[in-house]
């Protein structure tokens, strides 16, 4: 059996709660990674963050 870590994100949540939303569409996305590859991916992401001097959240 193969295990996965699943990461989800959404944009434009105000579309569901605002009477005058700024957008017409909402997007929901996910990223599925093999659990045994997680450490390698995290290392690659940290390397990119350091290389480009990115702090906090980035997309």
Question: Please, could you describe this protein's structure?
Answer:
The mean pLDDT is 89. The chain is α+β, with helices and mostly antiparallel strands. The protein has helices spanning 14-17, 38-51; strands at 4-11, 27-34. The protein has one domain (4-51). A two-stranded antiparallel sheet has the order 1-2. It is flat. 0% of the residues are buried. It is built from two helices and two strands.
Q: Main sheet: which strands, in order across?
A: 1-2
Number of domains: 1
Low-confidence stretches: none
Based on Cα principal axes, name the global outline.
Answer: flat
Strand content: 25-35%
Proportion of helical residues: 25-40%
Major sheet description: 2 strands, antiparallel
Q: Which secondary-structure class do the elements indicate? A: alpha+beta
Individual helix count: 2
> Which series of helices and strands comes N to C?
EHEH
Instruction: Give the tally of β-strands.
Output: 2
Overall mean confidence score, pLDDT:
89
N-to-C span: 30 Å
Report the C-alpha radius of gyration, rounded.
16 Å
Protein name: Transcriptional regulator
């Amino acid at each position: 059996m193969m295990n996965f870590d699943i990461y989800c994100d959404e944009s434009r949540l105000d579309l569901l709660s605002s009477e005058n939303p700024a957008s017409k569409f909402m997007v929901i996305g996910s990223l599925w990674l093999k659990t045994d590859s997680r450490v390698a991916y995290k290392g690659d992401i940290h390397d990119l963050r350091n290389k480009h001097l990115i702090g906090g959240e980035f997309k």
